[in-house]
Amino acid sequence: MTKISYKQTIWLIVSWLSFSASAITPAAPELAAKSYVLMDYDSGKIIVQHNPDMPVPPASLTKMMTSYVVSAEIAAGNLNLTDKVRISKNAWAQNPVFAGGSLTWIEVNTDVSVEDLLKGVIIQSGNDASVALAEHIAGSEDVFADLMNQHAQKLGMINTNFENSNGLPADGHISTARDLSLLTAAMIRDYPEEYAYYKEKWFTFNGIKQANRNSLLWDESLDVDGVKTGHTDAAGYCLVSSATKNNMRLISVVMGTKSKNSRKVEGKKLLSYGFRFYETVKPLEAGKQLHQQEIWMGEKEVISLGIAKDIFLTIPRGQAKNLKARYVVEKDIEAPIAQGQLVGKVFFSLGEEKFAEYPLVALEEVQEAGVFGRMSDSVSRWFSTLF
């Protein structure tokens, strides 16, 4: 085979099973909230935002990270749902007489399972259950808060700092709408079994039955399966919610509304807008060959190229027919090449707008050819430069 040395651009044909007849996308609703974000779970695209990086007290939304750390400890084998936790006086004392807020109503010097405490944190928003788990895992809330912050940094929550496990007011205890959307996506992706607790409407412990405060769980017009409410005087009324429709999952974060009903109404506005006017498509699959590219100095003459991870794009509904893709091999490919090695980029455009770009990688390993193979390619390469 005669190889040609040049930078190569190839247009891809992206086909769709169906698309909407409508291509009109109205402006996003303006919410009565200090900050908010609407994010697509699969693509990570922020569809709507207002003050997304404004630091605000997260109140009981803090417990999302508390549950995330508990889930991480379970996954690491350091903790089991059946483990018993001895309830300290400090954990028990997180009651209205001492601190105010929501409770699971655990009792001092009793043994409670990790699963019951986790449900208490998630469903009942129990301040006492949060402290009990923090002490059991880390020995103290201070050390547990450090664990929370380390996980936050790994998740890219760069504007977040936790001082405690339950979200009661504390200096420097802050987060943002964007950061909380990242945390929500991580909960759903990393620990789906524990995330399933967030859709449970009721939990009974110690003879006391309490409802999940996320009233969107009862809204039959949306398939909401989480996530968490929060409220303090400083934070206002907050709600993180997630819902699915037609293979699309959206995450809504609303911070600083004025009432329980307002956070529900504003959260529903975001979700309804996203589902009505946007769609998420998967134009390319990981590991699927997009092109066979000539390779120099290798045991093989061609190499398969593609993408390492599935690509999801969130676009205005009805615009799929205008989505185009192309990829560019940035330079001559020369062996040895490792599987997954970056060799170019895939570009997507929507109409005249450059929409997104992703790495183009080698789907296979190609070892260097023997001495005679390399000599032959060197001669061919030299001749190709003459024409």
| Class per helix and strand makeup | alpha+beta
The proportion of strand residues reads 25-35%
Any idea what the radius of gyration is? 26 Å
- What CATH calls the topology of the largest domain is Beta-lactamase
Mean pLDDT across the residues is 88
- Any idea what the shape is? globular
In short:
The chain has 387 residues and is an alpha+beta fold. The chain is built from 9 helices and 17 strands. It has 2 domains: 8-18 and 283-384, Peptidoglycan synthesis regulatory factor (PBP3), Domain 2 (Sandwich); 35-199 and 215-257, Beta-lactamase (3-Layer(aba) Sandwich), CATH 3.40.710.10.
Describe the structure.
The chain folds into 2 domains: 8-18 and 283-384, D-Ala-D-Ala carboxypeptidase, C-terminal domain (Peptidoglycan synthesis regulatory factor (PBP3), Domain 2, Sandwich), CATH 2.60.410; 35-199 and 215-257, 3-Layer(aba) Sandwich (Beta-lactamase), CATH 3.40.710.10. The chain has a 6-stranded antiparallel beta sheet, with no helix packed on it. A 5-stranded antiparallel beta sheet has the order 3-2-10-9-8, with helices on both faces. The chain is built from 9 helices and 17 strands. The chain is α+β, with helices and mostly antiparallel strands and 387 residues long.
